[in-house]
Amino acid sequence: MAVYTHLAAEELEELIFEYDVGKLISAKGIAEGVSNSNWLIETTGADGKGARFILTMYERRIENSDLPFFLGLLDHLAAHDCPVPCTIHDRTGAAFRVVGDKAVALIEFLPGVSVDRPSPQQTHSVGKALAKVHLAVASFPHSRPQTLGLAAWDQTIHECDNRLDEIDPSLADISYRELSFLAGEWPGGLPQGITHCDLFPDNVLMLGNEVSGMIDFYFAATDFFAYDLAVTHAAWSFTQVGQEYRREIGIALLAGYEEIRPLNEAERESLPVLARGACMRFISSRADDWLNTPADALVTRKDPMDFVRRLEFYRQAGTKIFAKGAE
Predict the structure, then answer these.
(1) Staple 232 to which of 135, 147, 199, 200, CB 3.0 to 4.6 Å?
(2) Is the dihedral of CA 142, 205, 270, 168 positive or negative?
(3) Is the pTM of this model over 0.85?
(4) Average of per-residue pLDDT across 149-161
(5) Virtual CA dihedral for 123, 190, 314, 243, nearest 10 degrees?
(6) For 271-285, what is each residue's pLDDT tens digit?
(7) Do the strands 210-214 and 51-58 form a parallel or antiparallel pair, or are they unpaired?
(8) Mean pLDDT across the chain, nearest whole number?
(9) Domains and their CATH numbers in the chain
């Protein structure tokens, strides 16, 4: 989450009036994240008892034509008892509105906090929650192509090529080497469906050891379930800058996931390559954001080298951390 576009108080008040949520009390910009503008909205509530929501304006990497898919997915998962916020529809029943030339949506606010250093118990719950999503999407009637796959990573790195050394002198060589490896080793034929593909700790809300919310599904796409698990493994199993692998966290995540949805043999064997792909996905997008984020945006840039360090770990670890019984 972030804020790229600034809305005046009058604009926000007029927008919130279009929803049956009471009058606007306050709107606070949220700096975390990189792709959309977000505000924490407080209103008097439809019943006068007060209410909170998240207002999202879609800025980068998201097409308005995809919003019915994303917002419909939220409503589907919420209806299937997944800890996912539902969409607040406006007075006409629309799931999103357009302000200027940008779409906005009002989303249910869920209680909980994002954890910086998760415990094994918390991570076990995250694995279970992700697996429940993978089961629930079986009845979701829509699909969406993966637009941030291997071809997109390659394109982004090439577009940033002559500036990658502004981030680190080694980044270009590392990226091209890894892209070549992944092009030859990427698996096929694994179980697939709608995946989150961005389940970082700041996209999960916790109450104690339990998951109270999974948010930011705006990179959701049809992909391998095991790839989604690999993304989550890379996001959760390391210290924030990727310098240390937390073995107990990786074990807990996989155990929680398999408690709900056991992996088949092909999925497990593919995890080492998928984890390297997960690293490359975030190396490429973070490099792009690092080099091209507007200077006046209320957004926290994230260092792509954090995932270079994760990538190097997965390269050296090989299959052993994902092998059955590795715990």
Answers:
(1) 199
(2) positive
(3) yes
(4) 97
(5) -30
(6) 999 999 999 999 999
(7) unpaired
(8) 93
(9) 9-108 (3.30.200.20), 120-317 (3.90.1200.10)
DSSP string of 64-126, one letter each residue: GGGHHHHHHHHHHHHHTT-S-PPEEP-TTS-S-EEETTEEEEEEE----B--SS--HHHHHHH
- pLDDT band at 3, cuts 50/70/90? low
Residue recorded with tokens 């060589």: 173
Structure-token pair, residue 51 = 């209410």
Highest mean pLDDT of the ranges 52-66, 282-296, 307-321: 307-321
When pLDDT is averaged across residues 42-60 and rounded to a whole number, the result is 93
Q: What is the CA radius of gyration of the chain?
A: 20
Are 87 and 71 in contact by the 8 Å Cβ rule? The answer is yes
**Tokens 């007029």, residue located:** 14
Query: How many CA atoms lie less than 13 Å away from 238 in the CB half-sphere?
Result: 23
Burial status of residue 75 (CB atoms within 10 A of its CB: 0-12, 13-18, 19 or more): middle
d(CA 40, CA 26): 8
